[in-house]
Amino acid sequence: MEKVILIRFGELFLKGKNRGAFERKLVNNINEKLQEFSVKAVNVGSRYMVSNYVMDHENIIIEKLKTVFGIHSLSPSIMLNNNYNEILDYIKSIKISSNTFRVTVNRADKRFPLNSNKLSEVLGAEILKGNSGITVNLHNPQTEVFIDIRENNKTFIFYNIIEGERGIPLGMGGKGLLLLSGGIDSPVAGYLIAKRGMQLQALHFHSYPYTSEQAKEKVITLAKHLSEYVGPIKLHFVKFTAIQEAIHKHCRSEYMITIMRRIMLQIAEKVAKDNHINALISGESLGQVASQTIESITVTNNVVKELPVLRPLIAMDKEEITAVAKKINTFKTSILPYEDCCTVFLPKHPLIKPKLEKVENEELRILNIVELINVAMQNIETLIV
Amino acid sequence: MIFFDNASTTKPDEVALSIFEKTNIDAFYNASSLYKVGVQNKKKLEQIKHNTLSLLNANLHDNFIFTSGATEANNIIIKGIVRNKNSKLIFSSAEHPSVYNCAKELESQGYNVVFLPLTKAGIVDENIFSKEVDINTAFISIIHVSNETGAVNDIKKLVKHAKSINPNVIFHSDGVQAFGKIEVNIRNLNVDAYTISAHKIYGLKGIGGFYIKNNINLKPLIHGGGQQENFRSGTENFAAICSFEHTVTEAISNQAIRYKKALDVCNHFKSKIQQALPNTILISGEDCSPYIITLAFPPVKSETLVYLLDEKGFLIGNGSACSSKNKGNRVLNNMGITANIIDSSIRISISKNTTKKEVDALVIALKECVESYMSKIKITQKV
User: Within an 8 Å CB–CB cutoff, is residue B370 touching chain A?
Assistant: First the structure.
């Protein structure tokens, strides 16, 4: 008898011939996450398990596994051999503290002598014998005893099925550069796309002294929270002050945000290429603010020449986004009052439906824009969070 | 680095630090213990309490309770005094958050809370005060010197007025920015409770306290071993209290001379800055404490000015955050100051050690920062 954590996969079954690669990646990711506990995931039929860990670490290992993309569910379990007497002995020792229970048997090993109905009946009767005052409730039991008899001669007994993150193992979906602003949306966008297997780097534009050092610290904190799910993140900081001042000085104020975002995307594409990244990721949600109307997105998207801009939040509303932000623990940091753009640069009436030609003409007023972008590119500060 | 944010905290003087350290080594004993060295500490605590009351010129039969600072003191006083949801509780709109948020909390619990509006000078409007105080008023809390503007409320007059309408009203004043800076004489003010803190007057953080008249029925907020006559349980921070005694003694004995110097430095700064930047808006008026000068250079955002000055080696406070999520400033807003000036307001606060030379350097730095900002930013707002 041994205590183990049983790990089930999700969509990996869909992947046909690629399944091997996905599975290897997942196991690799699990092992990396659990490195500090000196344990490894081992295959048990169509599931994996983690064993030989210090019992005090069980909860924290489960918490870590809950952040691994590709895991469908988890169960802390007792592992026995597929031996009727061994199972029976264990079942006899079970003490159930609730009033009602049921036994659910899954017999994957068809060589096992008793079928699942018969087995649940017999084992249920044993539990009733050993626990006075409890009754069976098949439909809504307070305690459910799961018995999973696998093909590899191992039986797992557990009481809980803990939901995993699901999704696709990190690293199977290429690399993306997340535009991380410091607000609620962008960390959520990063999380959602990483859940599709994409590895992340992040890019932040800051305009000290118009915005604070705290705004920068806030972005680092957000990246740290995100790294719980996606592993260490390479975080690039672009000094945007001179560009913002130039736009402010030369262009009409209503164009400020549109032009700013176009330049940010141009820089982002350059950073992505320098780092061999396949896509840009933005936290835009259609219609949320003036800069996120379809006309604004069209005009800003126009500057990105080669890479796709992925917008995982495009059809989500604020409540849905906020719920995810709370789940991944970025919400509290995101709502700190340090902004990514000082109010001094925000126009009273930004363009809601910008026209590409007019915006391009307006941009021509900044004569040294190429030079400003080059300077910004040369002064990028990168850290790993 | 020159520090102009002395209203937020001050650099502790070396004696205050050394007393703390020495006492912690030589006399670390619990003042509630029975052995001699413990009893000695207890005696010393009594003596410090006595001295503090004496320095405040309060009745020696009254009480002084040591706390971790002014926030705790204000919480103990307000929450320990108010009882009846039907009686009226009056607060000024200029209260420090440690008073204001207690009042807000009481309001949310269904207490009858009234916030008094401010005059343009940032003090309580005496006419409105007179109208609000009635026989049903149980408690009043008015800040002595505003931490935002340095505006000084005439506490003596307000107490006299309130007591003439309702002799049973309990009057508290938060004196954190007043004590050691302007004259504070409890007998003269005739308040029932008064809060002070050490770290605003060159003492240590983590120690402060409040004066309270002995006839006031104060419910303890913190329950425990019954220390300090059960008003504030918890082992007394003996070393910090010994250091506090030094801080308070120094503050009282040097108050008048320091005030004179501060006034001189303050006036010097005001005249220099107006010469250097004629569009300066002085929010702190003539009658304010000379230790706090709130001013604005619209449309320069205060937050940006704080960062720019930081880079030049000057540390100042900002009146309000440059943030659309955190609009304005409660106190300045209540004084009727417009949003663009509030967005631009900064707080310069000086210490006993601030010199005219330092102020001159600050004026030069301010001029450079404001002019550099203006050269980069198009002016779209009317000032």
Answer: no
- Assigned CATH for B255-373: 3.90.1150.10
Q: Are the beta carbons of B376 and A339 separated by less than 8 Å?
A: no
Contact predicate A172/A178, CB 8 Å:
no
CATH code, domain carrying A19: 3.30.2130.30
Question: Residue A178: pLDDT above 90?
Answer: yes
Tell me the pLDDT band of A289, cut-offs 50, 70 and 90. Answer: confident
Give the count of Cβ contacts less than 8 A between chain A and B: 45
- Domain containing A344 — which CATH number? 3.40.50.620
Provide ipTM, 2 decimals: 0.71
pLDDT digits (tens, 9 = 90+) for A252-264: 989 999 999 999 9
Which one of the listed residues B102, B266, B288, B322 is annotated catalytic?
Answer: B322
Do the Cβ atoms of B378 and A210 come within 8 Å? no
With respect to residue A168, please indicate whether it lies within any of the assigned structural domains. no
Q: Are B197 and B69 in contact (CB under 8 A)?
A: yes
pLDDT surpasses 70 at B77: yes
CB of A116 within 8 Å of a chain B CB? The answer is no
User: Does residue B326 surpass a pLDDT of 80?
Assistant: no
The residue from A163, A189, A207 where one domain ends is A163
Query: A123-140: per-residue pLDDT in tens?
Result: 999 999 999 899 999 999
Q: How many domains does chain A have?
A: 2
Q: Which of A:218-247 have CB within 8 Å of B?
A: 245
Give the pLDDT confidence score for residue A221 in this predicted structure: 96
Contact B304 A343 (CB under 8 A): no
Does residue A245 share a domain with residue A105? no
Host domain of residue A15: 2-163
pLDDT at B380 over 80: no
* Whole-number average pLDDT of chain B: 94
What is chain A's Cα-based Rg? 27
pTM: 0.82
> So what's the pLDDT on residue A14?
65
- For position B375, what pLDDT does the model report? 87
User: Quick one: DSSP state of residue A12?
Assistant: G
- Residues A313 and A217 grouped into a single domain: yes
- Reduced to 3 states, what is the DSSP secondary structure of residue A131? coil
- Which CATH number applies to B14-251? 3.40.640.10
Identify which of B304, B321, B325 has the shortest CB distance to residue A210: B304
Residue of B304, B323, B343 with shortest CB distance to A337:
B323
Residue of B nearest to A336 (CA): B325
Domain boundary pick from A124, A141, A163:
A163
Q: What is the residue whose two structure tokens read 């295959």?
A: A43
Give the integer Cα–Cα distance in Å for B306 and B11.
20
What is the Cα–Cα distance from A140 to B76, expressed in whole angstroms? 51
Q: Residue B198 and residue B179: Cα distance in Å, rounded? A: 9
Residue spans per domain, chain B:
14-251, 255-373
CA distance B115 to chain A (A): 26
**Do A240 and A265 meet the contact criterion of CB atoms below 8 Å apart?**
no
Q: What is the mean pLDDT of residues B45-73?
A: 97
Residues of A in contact with B321 (CB under 8 A): 337
B323 touches chain A (CB under 8 A): yes
Angle at A290 (CA atoms; ends A287, A293), nearest 5 degrees: 40
Distance CA B146, CA B118 (A): 11
Please tell me if the domain spanning B14-251 has the same topology as the one spanning B255-373.
Answer: no
Cα–Cα distance for residue pair A9/A27, rounded to 1 Å: 10
Same structural domain, A154 and A7? yes
Please check whether residues A221 and A129 belong to one and the same domain.
Answer: no
